[in-house]
């Protein structure tokens, strides 16, 4: 078999494709899975050559450390197909590097970048037909690593699995989102794992988010764990605010995830001549800006939704509505990013990656 990857990846093909069972016109987000997955094992002190196998369940010991100590990290990315059937990724090397940054924090051994990139490339060549092409949909890609090694001893595992699974997906959110500014619970803390894409960060978010949902909100806006006066992230997305014509976002830190969408939004906005400020944003500033009419937009940014406009935010039993405006930054920036991702526009930044 001739490939243009360095790694010789053994492929075991699925006996029968499931693709006909999937309704590509009614895709949920991350509910249906493609025919194959990439699997790469770490044992005896090294990562073995990845292989591609049919998508299937995994067998683990009850004492596998993932179950007890939560050693797991993941990434989220998307593949698109352009009008000429080219398979495209968006800044995949950034996901690869971030996976290793996350791993390091959780004492998971670093994965060779070539295994990530070659494995992903080979898998996508095989799963090409699974990439949906309708507006807002994509093949959502989930690379993840977890501790498969066993033992109840509270220490890092000696075996890990790196897997990439793919899910043809429709748009992530529908409609505008109501968020609640959270003052009791924290997503992350100084010196913690907030900057890592660690599974446990999400587990810790579910309960406070459920409480917000019970009150009629869709998501929470996390504030700093120390004072709860400054906003940090919108659910599992980075957060942006537009006050007058300035686009604001908070600096990344060990509490805030360094989102690829966030940094792309910043670069595109600057290229568009939008004034961008990266600084702390207090809840007080948001409320004052809302009251005096200078708060024009609030939105989340992340791979799944790209840009998720916020319709209102709640704070201490009061709701503050965002105005409905024409020519929003949210829609402009979303269009610019998705046009680059799907090859509908030039890519002056060199972000697009041809598989
Ligand atoms: C994944 C994630 C984001 C968004 O990152 P992208 O690289 O833009 O997808 C933001 N915040 C948190 C907490 C995340 O887990």
Could you provide a short overview of the structure?
The chain has seven helices and 19 strands. The chain is α+β, with helices and mostly antiparallel strands. The structure holds pyridoxal-5'-phosphate.
Total beta strand runs: 19
> What is the CATH architecture descriptor of the largest domain?
2-Layer Sandwich
Distance between the termini: 17 Å
Q: How many structural units, i.e. domains?
A: 2
Tell me about the biggest sheet?
Answer: 10 strands, mixed
Q: So how many helices?
A: 7
Percent in helix:
10-25%
CATH superfamily of the largest domain: Aminotransferase class 4, branched-chain amino acid transferase, N-terminal domain
Q: Which spans of ≥5 residues are poorly predicted at pLDDT below 50?
A: none
CATH topology of the largest domain: D-amino Acid Aminotransferase, Chain A, domain 1
Order of H and E elements: EEEEHEEEHHEEEHEEEEHEHEEEHE
For the record, what CATH class of the largest domain applies? Answer: Alpha Beta
Summary keywords:
6-stranded mixed beta barrel; binds pyridoxal-5'-phosphate; 7 helices; D-amino Acid Aminotransferase, Chain A, domain 1; 10-stranded mixed beta sheet; globular; alpha+beta; 29% strand; 355 residues; 19 strands; single chain; D-amino Acid Aminotransferase, Chain A, domain 2
